[in-house]
Design brief:
alpha+beta, 2 domains, 6-stranded mixed beta sheet, 26 strands, FIST_C, FIST domain-containing protein, FIST_domain_N
Length: about 350
Amino acid sequence: MESVNFVNVEETINYIRTKNEKAFVIFADVEKVKKLSSASLNNVVLCSTSGEYTNEGYKNGAITGFEYDANEGEVIEIEYPPIISLERLKEGYRKVKDNKDAFALLLCDGLSGMEETILTTFYFMEDSFKIIGGSAGDNLKFSETLIYIGNRRVYSAILFFNSKRKTYLIKENIYAPTKNKLLITEADTISRTVKTFNNKPAATEYARVLGIKESELSKFFMNNPLGKIYREDIYIASPMKVNNDKSITFYSQLIPNTFVQVLKAVDPIEEVRKTTSKLPFKPGFAIVINCILRSLKFQQEGIWKDIDREILKACSNTTGFVSYGEQFYKMHSNQTMVMLLVQ
């Protein structure tokens, strides 16, 4: 697998047409994806972004992605609702499930809020099977996100890779638990809306435990999201907005009668150093997916170049994108970085 970068749409099309034996995954903004999709490139999966990750680090407006031997990967469309695609998903998984280094790249529609539904459709997969995923973005326009298989627009897609090299999957949080917990006492999981914490209006109680004015709550969402505890690990649920009835809508599901941790930000540069210092092998290729809220934080603090330096020091043959949500194995989360390493 090799990362690729292109200056413009024309260069991308010309390069791909000379590589009939290769297949490609390409990440770009919505407008570039639309143009590429009309070029009849049958050996390409396209995914729209809110920023791209290249072998030169974070970019906004780049065209990037990777090429791979066509016989090492299988692309499967995930229809809506996902259960329609169950038999094709089972068949794709069957072909790779005995390879401990096989993995899947999951590309979800970024605006339908269906990531958890897609992941539950994978009930037949072993929990240890590596899934790295990202929800397609549209640079915060929240209008449309795009995924194409060739020139055919699809709802979502998964690529199964029967890797011949060692692989490893990593999740990184730049948040740590505080002493504060909240009990979700009323929530609508379908709309990802929490109505009450601790039997009190969600916004009122969230602000109280942070020690801030309720009117200023949304200013603290980026640095104080909530954490779902699963198997002694933290999966972040990012608040999207406070509603008129003081309920809060999130970017991932929160379940009634469960506790969530109020989180605080830690030093992102120190955290990425810890992550890259613990890699089990020197990777020859990496896919890196960062949440849009994580990217915005890095932009506001002016630290993307510092983050890039640590990631690219670990592996220069790197690609990826900035997403509207991240998938790690069978879990969906926000404000996270997920990395798939190939030796």
